[in-house]
Design goal:
Number of strands: 0
Shape: flat
Distance between the termini: 41 Å
Order of helices and strands: HHHHHHHHHHH
Largest sheet: none
Number of domains: 2
Radius of gyration: 19 Å
Oligomer: single chain
């Protein structure tokens, strides 16, 4: 059995993990709640990639060929495991290594490159076959990416102007849906540019979703 013929390419999972890697680089200044959120996200990414990799490895007839073809997935699993190790283990030496900013940066870059490569490989198939899913996925990715960029560009952190990454997620959701409550606003040029991109993408993707829903309702009535 060829797993590539029976499994949907996990592009949304690949891309969805990327914005949190950027937030990981600012881990030291974030609140305890934000750090726990990052740890949970790392565990979810590890489990998702590991299960997908192991299931396909078991189902394939040529395991050697699969390992050679899916080396990107293996790299993501390994790097995610290193990122999660301090959360799952009380080994002091591992915690010391994980606390080094350089190591955090290396792990983030490795996962960023690997997940980007996998998403680029699988994305073309997704766009051709599932326009609605692509629009929803793009909106979700923009929501996470805008929140991550806001966290990097603005004064976000424990005791700062914006308290936490969760507040950044709230701002991103209000911006991408063009609601704009105004309780949290960017003050830097970069933050405002991120807001503009989020609004443009939000208007475009939600228009696609609305059009597809309208087409479904009209077809159903006919």
């Amino acid at each position: 059995m060829d797993p590539h013929l029976t499994y949907t390419p996990p592009t949304g999972r690949d891309l969805g993990s990327l914005p949190l890697l950027l937030v990981e680089l600012q881990r030291d200044r974030l609140s305890v709640g934000d750090r726990r959120l990052i740890d949970v996200a790392n565990i979810v990414v590890l489990v998702a990639f590991a299960v997908d990799y192991l299931v396909e490895l078991i189902l394939t007839n040529d395991r050697r060929q699969y390992i050679r073809a899916e080396w990107i997935n293996a790299i993501i699993v390994a790097s995610a495991a290193l990122a999660v190790a301090p959360t799952l283990s009380a080994v002091g030496g591992v915690r010391v290594l994980r606390a080094l900013p350089v190591l955090r940066g290396v792990l983030a870059v490795v996962r960023l490159l690997a997940a980007s490569g996998m998403a680029a490989r699988d994305g073309r198939r997704l766009v051709r076959r599932r326009a609605l899913s692509f629009a929803v996925g793009t909106a979700s990715l923009t929501w996470l990416s805008a929140a991550a960029a806001f966290t990097l560009a603005e004064d976000v952190g424990d005791g700062r102007r914006v308290e936490s990454f969760l507040d950044a997620l709230w701002w991103s959701a209000a911006t991408i849906t063009t609601v704009g409550y105004g309780d949290i606003t960017p003050v830097t040029s970069t933050g405002r540019a991120v807001g503009v991109v989020a609004m443009v993408v939000g208007i475009s993707t939600f228009a696609i979703v609305t059009a597809r829903v309208a087409a479904f309702l009209v077809a159903d009535d006919g």
